Structure formats: structure tokens, C-alpha cells
Amino acid sequence: MSKPLKVALLGCGVVGSQVIKLMEEQADDLAARIGAPLELAGVAVRKPGRKREVSFDPALLTTDAEGLVTRDDVDIVIEVIGGIEPARSLILAAMASGKSVVTANKALLAEDGATIHAGGGDLYYEASVAGAIPLLRPLRESLAGDRVKRVLGIVNGTTNYILDKMDSTGASFNDALEEAQALGYAEADPTADVEGFDAAAKAAILAGLAFHSRVTAADVHREGITEITATDVASAKAMGYVIKLLAICARSDDGRSIGVRVHPAMIPRTHPLAGVREAYNAVFVEAESAGQLMFYGKGAGGAPTASAVLGDLVAVARNRLARTRGPEESVYASLAVHPMGETVTRCHVSLDVADKPGVLAQVATLFAEHDVSIQTVRQEGHGDDAQLVIVTHRATDAALSATMEGLRRLDIVRAIASVMRVEGDD
Amino acid sequence: MSKPLKVALLGCGVVGSQVIKLMEEQADDLAARIGAPLELAGVAVRKPGRKREVSFDPALLTTDAEGLVTRDDVDIVIEVIGGIEPARSLILAAMASGKSVVTANKALLAEDGATIHAGGGDLYYEASVAGAIPLLRPLRESLAGDRVKRVLGIVNGTTNYILDKMDSTGASFNDALEEAQALGYAEADPTADVEGFDAAAKAAILAGLAFHSRVTAADVHREGITEITATDVASAKAMGYVIKLLAICARSDDGRSIGVRVHPAMIPRTHPLAGVREAYNAVFVEAESAGQLMFYGKGAGGAPTASAVLGDLVAVARNRLARTRGPEESVYASLAVHPMGETVTRCHVSLDVADKPGVLAQVATLFAEHDVSIQTVRQEGHGDDAQLVIVTHRATDAALSATMEGLRRLDIVRAIASVMRVEGDD
After folding, report:
1. How far apart are CA B282 and CA B296, in angstroms?
2. What is the structure's pLDDT at B426?
3. Active-site residue among A149, A202, A244, A298?
4. Which residues does NADP(+) bind (chains A, B) (predicted)?
């Protein structure tokens, strides 16, 4: 057995506490798996006086994170403070002084992964996407001999919890959000989750790995779920669909560019993602040779995230003993991210219309003018309640948007009651 | 870019052909991901004159596999011939002369993995279990910082296809098997699949990785599906269950031993594994911190298996350039495999009984004598058709077996119509 590897921990919140607890509880197993024991060298926090969920030698606490990550005896730095700064500077300082780094920081990786990777140290970040679900390692390594065509999944547990409640109980968005907050699934300020920022950061990381290209959060088309109404959910249900917030990364048909987007979409209730309940995550990966793969599990929470962090900790520790490092950033393909307008999707539209002859003809003509082909159309209600429910074939998002603009200008269309993309039944 | 890495291929059947095809089609991507181009150095086959599914320079063909794997210029050996010998000798010879090895050989790994690992070369074998589904790498690496409690899954596509057909069409085992054979899902001699040998080999490999212990196919309790009748399937269906062939590797409650078994079992139709149709595979992994994870995808076939082989090929190639190797065999925990009798399961039993007062009392007494607690009991039919359908609580397999023996000796029990373990609803 080699001499101990010393681990510095940045942050001691829900995940950090769990990391310390597991490092201690599983010390013998970890040592056997690595070939050397791990030793906690220090824990950098902002408020040393705060009560923690785990007890450890208080002498390990420090507010000098920079000093800790550059300390000569430290081998590995685990960053679980999140956010851009000071996380970025600390990771770079750690790498500059030869440390290996494990991070769960999706925001940083999605905003400025290039800088972090350029730091040159061994870098693992499985916990940054989909918590405990092994997803980045399979993309970085298992599928390294295949061509990924599409990654499609539910990567935010909070929004899935809210949408699942709306679907199963008929609750409004606000009521479901309140319940999620009461249960600790949503934060007091839920913006990052419900507006899709969290999912967009994850989509950027997934797209970068899947397509060997550099993708940042700014490249991701993002729509949240705050405008989904109980009526949207109910009418999706009536048609055999369920609404999910999806992260979708896909190569264009010609393979020359990629689309990366996060938005609510209707998927058939028979689709495996439709069965993903509560705060679970699930991601489909479609590759040329492997076909369709699905990964499912807990996407957040202290213990699941700590499991991913510790898996990475074992990996960097093994690498360190073998004087090697894991796969470097792979961005050789340099595929461009195309604008949302070029993305091809299907669309479900409900229109409140005047109930008189010729309405369908006018609407259908408008769709045809924009080259959007209609798959099904259903007329519902009569008189003032007349509705047209239309599902299109695949068309570019630009053509679909132009069609919606046109519909808004038609006299016979009283209102566009809802517009929702449809995924998962091609 | 480094100089080419030379790859020797052993076997050129369905998987081997696909490997050659993909190595050529994706040559540029593979080179970029590895940092060096790959070059096919030779293909060892038994019958060089045979027609192949892929075209390549016939000068690469050789019948001298031993000569090929020890050739000085060869860096990496891919073994896709399967079976114990000559695969074992060839892998050992390759390792002895310093080659890295990628294999898809579950039978060999499950029978004599210790010898192969002792060969000392870099060894990857993702394709040996569940085809394209990244499962071994997540167990070996992603979950290296967690404690796996249970692995439970469908790891044989052929039997899942047969059972799925029986469930969806009411077909008999033989009719479903014939259909599977006609479609190429089952071989002319289906023994390895339908008797559970294939699944047992995979279970041994999974258990070894999950529990850091040495497990061989001989340690696995194995029951096939040949005795499952259309009636079994129908009555499971009537109760809201579906019958699947499961591979289950689980730590005992005290954590000191493991149980490894392959047998048909009833699972609730609401369980995610119940929705695994046709020849797909899916595996649940339950770990202390990560919670429940599921991996789903194509478990067999040329392209999916080749995807896994190529992922491993990229890994060993990267390792070779970095002068390192992947994780070594991890068997430090040395947990013993306990006999099936100590395994704790639930059980569903249908009894043909005499329709007279006191029958239930006698049967219930017998269960109680063996310490097997009954969860539900239902009486069906009358007169000569009277049946008792019993579902037990958890009990050891030994107690359940003794109970069945006792039932056979009871006068009032005309026959035990079916006995099936129940999984997935605890």
C-alpha cells in the first residue's frame, strides 16, 4: 500500500458533508480500491463557525481556500462550492500547483470549461450532470468508439417533480412548485431550475462530450416551464402525452452541426422517459452502433452526488499513483452549434377559432405557405368554444415560428391557446 | 499524432466483421480521440476461405493466431472468438508478450477470470456483459466510491424475447422459441440461452465487479426458462405480474456474503424491468449512496457489441500511449458466495387442492411449520378445479424448498401447479 493521498475539500454543504462522511465510513474500501489510503488534508469554508451535518477535526477547517489548494502536501482537490468564482480561480490554482481535481460544478464547466480544461490537471466531473447516474464516463469513455447521434433526457429533478405533480394531480404550476419547495426539491429562489438554466448547463456539458466539440451554456436554446398551465398538462394527457422538460443535444441530419436545447415538450406516455417520476433523472443516448441506451437514477441530493464525487476521487487517486491522467478534453470535431431556427422538431398547437366554414382551409393554407406539413388536425367544440388541435410533421423551428406569427394575424384565429414541441415519437 | 497502434483481431464472425468495418469507417475519429491512428495488423480465423461480412486486405488473414498475438509489431489484441480454448491461451500469450487485450468473452471471464487477470496485461471486457450498455465501466469506475448492495437485471436478450412473446401473445415456450430462432434472436441450439448459462456467466462477472470478490459461473445458482408454461405466464399476468429471467447479485443482510443467481421470477408490471421488451437488456444497480440506477439498451448483436469493443479499444490505446493501464482486478473483499438455500426471496405458489373444509388450515399450518409467512392467499374454482394461490413473505430458499416438499406430501394437495419466485416489489 502506498503512502496516503491527501485530499483538500472546497465547500462543506450538503454534498461536501456527505463526501467527508463517506470518506471516513468507507476508508478501508477506498484504500483497497485505490492502493493507498485517503486522508482529509483540509476543508475550506466561508463560515467556519457554522453547524455542519458531519463532524470532523475542527483543525481541518480553514477560510484560506487558496492556501489549502496550493499546499505542498495536498494531492487532490475536490470542489463542491459551485458557481463561477472563486471556484474557477481555485481550480486553476490547484492545477497550477500539480493537484488533481474533482468537481461537481456544472455552471463553471458550462460557462468556461475551456479555461478549466486548459489548466492541464487531471479533471473529473461526473457529479456535474445527473448526480449519481454514470453518464459522463460512459460518454467520455464507453462510447469513445461510437458516433453519438442524439442525447435526450430529463436532467433536472426539480422541474420533473413539478411537472409530474401537475400531471398526476392536475395542480397548477405554482401549487406544484410550492409543494416541491416544501419538500426540499426546489429552492426558495427556483429560477435556476424552473427557467431551465440548470438543465441548459448540463446540456452544454453533455453536448460537448457527445460531439467532441466545445459547447457553452450560451449556445443552448433555453425555455423554462413557468408558463405551462394545468390546461396544457390536461390536454397533453387527453392526447396520450405527458409534458417533460427535456435537454436535447442532436447532430444535424448532415452531421455538420449540432443543436442543443432545453425546453418543455410533449412525449408519448408510452415513451420510457414518460415513466420517469418525481425528482428522478433519465437520459437517452442514441449512437450509431450502440443504438438506444438509457441511463436512469437520482439526479441530485447529497448522497447520490457524493457517490459520483467519490467515484471520481478513486479515479484521480488511481491515476496519481500510476502517474497518469484521465482523458483530456476532446473537442477535435469543432462542430458549430446551429441556431434554434434550424432545429427540426414537431409541434402541437391549439387554436381558439371562429366556428364557421372555411376556417380549417385558411389555417391549412397558412401552414402550407410556410412549408409546414400537418400530421393530424382535430376540431373540438362549437361556437365560441371551437378549437383546432394541430400536430405537425417535422419542420424547422424557424418555419414553425413563422407559422405561429401568421396564425396570430389571421382574423379567424381568436387566440393560440398553446404551442408545444413534440418529441420522442419519431 | 503518435505513430500507429497495431491491432490484431482474433475472430471474424458477426462482431469481428463489425469491428473491422467500424475501425475503417471511423478511422479519423478514432485517431483523434486516441491521439494515434489504429492499424489492423492481422485477422486470425480458422477458415480463411470463408465468405465474410466485411471486405479487407486478404493478406491480413491468418490461421496462425498464436503467431499473430505475439508478433513484435502488434500493440493490441481484440479477442472475439469466444469459448474457453484457444481464447485463454491466446490472451495469455498476448499478455506475456506485452500486448493490451480487449475481449468480449463472458464464458472465459466467468470460468477463469482469475487466470486471465493474472496475465497482467491491460484488460477491458465491456462487451462481455449486456452488449453496448456501459455497465462494467460504471461498476469498475463510476461506483468505485460507493457500496453496491444489489445488481438485478435482464442480461439475456434471447430469453427476454421469448418471455415477452409468451406474455404478449399467449404463445407456448416452444412456439416463442421457434419464432426467436426464425428471427435470429435464438441459435439453432438454444441451450446456452434458455437454460440460463449465458446469463449465469454474466451474473458472475457482474457480481465479481460489484462486490470486489472472485465469482465464477460455477458459483451461480442457475435455472432456465424451458419449464415456463403459457399458463404460468397467463396467471402471472392475471395477478399484475410478468415473468422475466433475472440475474440477481446481492449482498446478504449482514454484508458478509453474496448470493448470485439466475432464474425466472415474477415482477410487478409496474416495475421498470417489466417494460423491457423484445431482446433488450436492462440492469438495475442499487448502491448505498447512489440509490437505484438503471442501465438499458441492446444487449447483443454485431453493431452494439462492436460499439463496446471499440470503446475498450480506445481506452487501451490511450492507456498504451500514456504508458499506463486501466484498473486491475479488484477482489480484495473476498466475499464468499452463499448457497442458494440461504438466499432470501418471496414465492408465488399455485396448488391444485381438494375442495373441502380445512384445506387452507392444513396448508397454512405447513407453511408456518417451516417459518414461511404467507402474505396473500386466494382460493379459486370449485370441486376438482379448486386452486390455492399463495404469495409468501420473504423467506430463505431452503425454507421455501422444504415447504414445497411438505406440500407434495399432503393428501389434500393434488399437484403443485406452479412455483415461481417474486422479485422487485420490496
Report:
1. 4
2. 63
3. A202
4. 10-17
Q: Are residues B380 and B406 in the same domain?
A: yes
Binding site for NADPH: residue ranges of B?
A: 106
- A31 and A122 co-located in one domain: yes
| Residues A274 and A146 placed together within one structural domain of the fold | yes
**Domain shared by B115 and B33, yes or no:** yes
Distance CA A266, CA A421 (A): 6
In tens, the pLDDT along B369-385 reads 999 999 999 888 887 78
One domain for residues A102 and A190 = no
C-alpha cell read off for A365: 393554407
Nearest CA in chain B to A303: B289
Cell numbers at A123, concatenated: 479533471
Nearest to B137 among A138, A290, A303 (CB): A138
Q: Does A290 contact B296 at a Cβ distance shorter than 8 Å? A: no
- B145·A327 Cβ contact <8 A: no
Chain A to chain B Cβ contacts (< 8 Å): 186
Q: Is residue A335 part of a domain?
A: no
The C-alpha cell at B29 is 475519429
Q: Do A251 and A154 have their domain in common? A: yes
Whether residue A280 is found in the same domain as residue A344: no
* CATH number of B361's domain: 3.30.70.260
Residues A120 and A169 in one domain: no
Is the confidence at residue A426, as pLDDT, over 70?
A: no
| Binding-site residues of B for NADP(+) | 10-17
Query: What is the C-alpha to C-alpha distance for residues A357 and A91, in angstroms, rounded to an integer?
Result: 67
Q: Contact A285/A278 with Cβ under 8 angstroms?
A: no
* B10-49 per-position pLDDT tens digit: 999 999 999 999 999 999 999 999 999 999 999 999 998 8
Residues B196 and B87: their CA atoms lie apart, in Å, by: 22
Residue A106 assigned to a binding site = yes
Q: What is the pLDDT of residues A194-228, one digit of tens each?
A: 999 999 999 999 999 999 999 999 999 999 999 99
Buried b or exposed e, range A363-394, using 16+ CB within 10 angstroms: beebbeebebebeebeeeeeeeebbbbbbbee
Percent of chain B with pLDDT over 70: 100
Check if the beta carbon of residue B97 is closer than 8 Å to that of residue B70: yes
- Per the structure, how many domains does chain A have? 3
Residue A66: give its domain's CATH number: 3.40.50.720
Report the CATH number at residue B164.
3.30.360.10
Looking at A265, A298, A331, the residue that finishes a domain is A298
Does B331 map to a domain?
no
Neighbours of A358 (CB within 10 A): 10
* Nearest-angstrom CA–CA distance, A248 and A232: 21
Q: What is the ipTM of this complex?
A: 0.93
pLDDT grade for A139, boundaries at 50, 70 and 90: very high
Pairing of strands B257-268, B336-337: parallel
**Which range among A33-37, A231-235, B304-308 shows the weakest confidence by mean pLDDT?**
A231-235
Over residues A6-33, mean pLDDT: 97
Q: What is the rounded average pLDDT of the residues A107-119?
A: 97
Kindly state the DSSP code that residue A141 receives in the 8-state scheme: I
User: Domain span at residue A353?
Assistant: 340-422
A10 known member of a binding site: yes
**Cα→Cα distances A274→A181, A267, A295, Å:** 23, 7, 14
Beta bridge partners of residue B77, listed in sequence order: B8, B101
For A191, the 3-state DSSP assignment is helix
